[in-house]
Write a structure and sequence with these properties.
The protein is mainly beta and about 210 residues long. The chain has one domain: Mog1/PsbP, alpha/beta/alpha sandwich (Protein Transport Mog1p, Chain A, 3-Layer(aba) Sandwich). It has helices at about 115-130, 185-200; strands spanning about 5-10, 15-20, 30, 65-70, 75-80, 85, 90-95, 100-110, 135-140, 145-155, 160-170, 175-180, 200. A hairpin with a 5-residue loop joins strand 1 and strand 2 (about 15-20). Mean pLDDT is about 80; it is low at about 1-40.
């Protein structure tokens, strides 16, 4: 079973990452990938000419200072001043206000159909997140490869929330970059997510 990203409801958004190895499927679970494939080789090239790019070429740069961070199993660009911590197999950065969470992880390739792997979790989301609204749930061209993007909104404690999760397989390594925040900060957060995803460089051996 894949690892999961949990969004913990409360006054603010927090990311708690747990391993789904026991097979339990918590009601607030969101998809990721884990487990070892029989081979870490890349799948055959897939034509992505018909897929919408993500992020779009017009995606703006974040409105806050950023820096390059080497996490060992991968490197990426993250906001300066955000607090770093490791949770399960993910690296998580929280903004100073405690309202936004950026997380990234790598794993051995488990499947080539990421959309299908996430489908059950998206179907459960309306029962998990109050006022859930799907913005995007589809295959997108991510860095020239077929990936999946899930963007949605919901309301928690009266506060409008916004999240985006994106995954792609590069050279046999699964990459996932997620951001959970508020609707108010979404212009900043969506740009932060786009830069983190496009700057993401996996190491030869992933974390899982």
């Amino acid at each position: 079973m894949p690892a999961v990203t949990l969004v913990v409801a409360g006054a603010i958004v927090a990311a708690v990452l747990a391993t789904k190895g026991s097979g339990d499927d918590g009601p607030a679970s969101l998809p990721s990938a884990d487990g070892r494939a029989s081979s870490a080789t890349s799948p055959p090239a897939v034509d992505v000419s018909g897929l919408t790019p993500y992020p779009t070429r017009s995606a703006p740069n974040p409105s806050i200072p950023t820096r390059r961070a080497d996490e060992g199993t991968f490197g990426w660009v993250v906001p300066t001043g955000w607090t770093r911590k490791e949770q399960s197999q993910s690296i998580v950065y929280n903004d100073p206000a405690g309202q936004s969470v950026l997380s990234g992880r790598t794993a051995f390739q488990q499947t080539t159909d990421l959309l299908e792997q996430w489908r059950d979790d998206e179907a459960k989301a309306p029962a998990v997140f109050p006022a859930y609204r799907k913005v995007i749930f589809e295959e997108r061209a991510i860095r020239g490869r077929k990936g999946v993007v899930w963007e949605y909104t919901w309301t928690e404690s009266g506060i409008p929330r916004h999240a985006v999760m994106a995954a792609v397989i590069i050279d046999g390594i699964y990459i996932e970059v997620d951001l959970f925040g508020t609707e108010q900060q979404w212009p900043r957060d969506s740009a932060t997510h786009a830069q983190a995803l496009t700057s993401f460089t996996p190491a030869t051996r992933p974390a899982a």
